[in-house]
Amino acid sequence: MSSRQRQGFGFLHLANPYSSRGAAVFCLLWAWLHCVLPSHAEPLNSNSFDVLVGTYTSGKSKGIYSFRFDADTGELQPLAPPAETVNPSYLVVSPDKKFVYAVNELHGCGNEQGAVSAFHFDAASGALTFINKVPAVGDDPCYLSLSPDGQNLFVANYSSGGLSALAVQPDGSLAGPVETLTHVGHGPNPERQKSAHVHMVIPSPDNEVLFATDLGEDRVYAYRCEPGSQAFPLHPAHPPFSVVSPGAGPRHLAFSHDGRFVYLIEEMGEAVVVFRRHEARLEPIQTVRVAPKEWPGDVGAAALHLSPDGKFLYASNRTNANDLVIYSVDAQAGTLTPVGHQGSLGAKPRDFCIDPTGKFLVVANQDSDNLVIFKRDPETGALTPTGRSVEVGSPVCIQMVPAP
What is the DSSP letter of 38? Predict the structure, then answer.
């Protein structure tokens, strides 16, 4: 574009802006510009976040709860009344923050199969408005992720051992399924691994591969996702899966920011495994425990998340442990060094999240019905109780997004 073809607002030429008529016109023009141009006098609060909490509804909970979190003070305040839905044990927010999708884990709720519900999300008020619900095409859906183009919602169906792809419509509603894949193997543990149990479906940071952890088979599957397709979008990658230790029970994954390393938490192996990623192939390079070997009882490893700067990894232990383990991350090698533990100040810490500023960590204690807030030291990774907690019935998933 030449200097003669600039785009933007044109400005009136005032022959004499100091005359009474010119001054009036100038004031009107200033007022008009003040209305139509973005104002920077009151910037958005970049340290304010909406928090959405998924729950089990067999006890005190009614569904999905919304809060406003202040990352300057660590305060968590309730927003709208809960969106009532059955067992929304995992949530995902659309990239444009307009929609929220929730599994309905209907185990023990009659003969009904699992489902997935869609909600419109008003980020300003925290209100969730139900759009529709569709079958998950499997039993006990426990995890959701969106395809890079936002056209497909991927569902991990735990008890039936498969994953499905649902079509996302332009209005945020769900249709489908467009594809269903079922795993058929088993593992050595006769109680927990009689059949396949898909626990997580998550795209890699480069959106090239969709990984699916299978607790029942001790495998991490890899699929290629065809962009723009709502008809059979998934294809086995090469190799189609990576194998972990027998009886380990792979649960959740986390990726380094550059995508070179993958961290896997083993629910039954009570460990975090570090992999070097070669596209779909995962090469194990380190295994570290989530609890001391002499721990006198069941641990039940659950969630893991990296700090926003990627320097620390956190993992939660449930049952007898009820704590968070902290590792420092070697940025070059990807390896982990344990640096501490912090009690969750509750029972069964199922999930947690670190706010995007890295100042605080919020943990969801499922069996003590509370969210507990910890101050986080970005230099050491250490967690310090703030004394703040919020009562929520059976919280098991936390998602945090910027507030408007």
Answer: P
Q: How far apart are CA 293 and CA 299, in angstroms?
A: 11
More confident residue, 26 or 346: 346
Q: How many residues does the chain have?
A: 404
Cα separations in angstroms, 400 against 54, 248, 304, 360: 12, 30, 15, 12
Q: Which of 17-31, 200-214, 370-384 has the lowest mean pLDDT?
A: 17-31
In whole angstroms, what is the distance from residue 364 CA to residue 40 CA?
37
Give residues with Cβ within 8 angstroms of 91, minimum separation 6.
52, 54, 64, 100, 101, 102, 103, 144, 397, 399
Burial class (CB in 10 A: 0-12, 13-18, 19+), 182: middle
pLDDT in tens, 96-121: 999 999 999 987 565 578 999 999 99
User: Measured at the alpha carbon of residue 227, what is the angle toward residues 217 and 276, in degrees to the nearest 5?
Assistant: 45
Tell me the mean pLDDT in the region 285-298.
82
Provide the token pair at 177: 């399924």
Q: Up-side HSE of residue 394: CA atoms within 13 Å toward CB?
A: 15
Residue 403's identity, in one-letter code, is A
Contact 386, 375 (CB under 8 A): yes
Residue 78 contacts residue 67 (beta carbons within 8 Å): yes
Among the listed residues 143, 67, 138, 132, the one whose alpha carbon sits nearest the alpha carbon of residue 99: 132
The dihedral sign for the CA sequence 93, 217, 305, 280: negative
- How would you class 375 by CB atoms within 10 Å of its CB: exposed for 0-12, middle for 13-18, buried for 19 or more? middle
Side-chain-side CA neighbours of residue 205 (13 Å) = 12
**Strand spans (E) along 160-280:** 162-168, 174-182, 198-203, 209-214, 219-225, 234-243, 250-255, 261-266, 271-278
Long-range contacts of 319-325 (CB under 8 A, 24+ apart): 319/348, 320/295, 320/296, 321/290, 321/291, 321/295, 321/297, 322/346, 322/347, 322/348, 322/349, 322/365, 323/349, 324/349, 324/352, 324/361, 324/363, 324/383, 325/290, 325/291
* Spatial CA neighbour of 95 closest among 72, 53, 123, 58: 123
Beta-carbon-side half-sphere exposure of residue 235 (alpha carbons within 13 Å):
10
β-sheet bridge partners, residue 391: 370
CA 209 – CA 140 distance, rounded (Å): 24
Residue 399 identity: Q
CB atoms within 10 A of CB 64: 25
- What is the torsional sign of CA 116, 313, 121, 210? negative
